[in-house]
Amino acid sequence: MSAAPGGPAEKAGIMSGDVILAIDDTSAQDMDIYDAADRLQGPEGSSIDLTILRSVKEAIKKLRENNVKAFVLDLRNNSGGLFPEGIEIAKIWMDKGVIVYICDSRGVRDIYEADGASTVAASEPLVVLVNKGTASASEILAGALKDNKRAVVYGEPTYGKGKIQSVFALSDGSGLAVTVARYETPARTDIDKVGVTPDRPLPASFPTDEDGFCSCLRDPASCNLNAARLFVRS
């Protein structure tokens, strides 16, 4: 995908080379180009939610070339996207450890772990930003990085979407959503309706827009942050 210069997609942060994984929570895997185009178009002022795959590994490589020694992963207002992508991103930052447990009424059903095969940045200092808009796969990522002590998490408790549901068709054409499993963090925390609790709160003055966010990182004191302790857990 490529974004037209100055267009709404570029202004929203879409970059050339991004891959659309989902449009408004509908997987784009089996969409043809015409179906995708229809879903992307709409009246002036309307909006859509896109789940985008971008080469995180390539971004980390370029940042290292610019002598970046620490990273901030901003998951605020990130509704999560697809579960497998959240797992793969966790593996980029972790070389070992449990990422998430999938549990049902009988106990642990599946365990997702990092094995080092996909690791790119397992040692540099890492801060993760979360808020109540951080949900689903993003919560799994934040919980994994926190519980494995891979990152310091700042912000407010996340949304708390920890249930896995299946929809069963009924004879009248309706459907019944049934909870079949749940997510638990590596510390065995059930995040449903509770969310991931950050290590530290963010100052109320900390901005969400990109320019303000970057200004705070360049001058932490201006946003009431202690630069010397920014990447320290306690």
UniProtKB/TrEMBL annotation:
Gene Ontology biological-process entries: proteolysis
GO molecular function, one term: serine-type peptidase activity
Record protein name field: PDZ domain-containing protein
Taxonomic lineage: Eukaryota, Viridiplantae, Streptophyta, Embryophyta, Tracheophyta
Spans traversing the lipid bilayer: none
Protein family (similarity comment): Belongs to the peptidase S41A family.
Family annotation (InterPro entries): ClpP/crotonase-like_dom_sf (IPR029045), PDZ (IPR001478), PDZ_sf (IPR036034), Peptidase_S41A (IPR004447), Tail-specific_protease (IPR005151)
CDD domains, per the entry: cpPDZ_CPP-like (cd06782), Peptidase_S41_CPP (cd07560)
PROSITE patterns assigned: PDZ (PS50106)
SMART domains given in the database record: PDZ (SM00228), TSPc (SM00245)
PDZ domain residues: 1-41
Keywords: Hydrolase, Protease, Serine protease
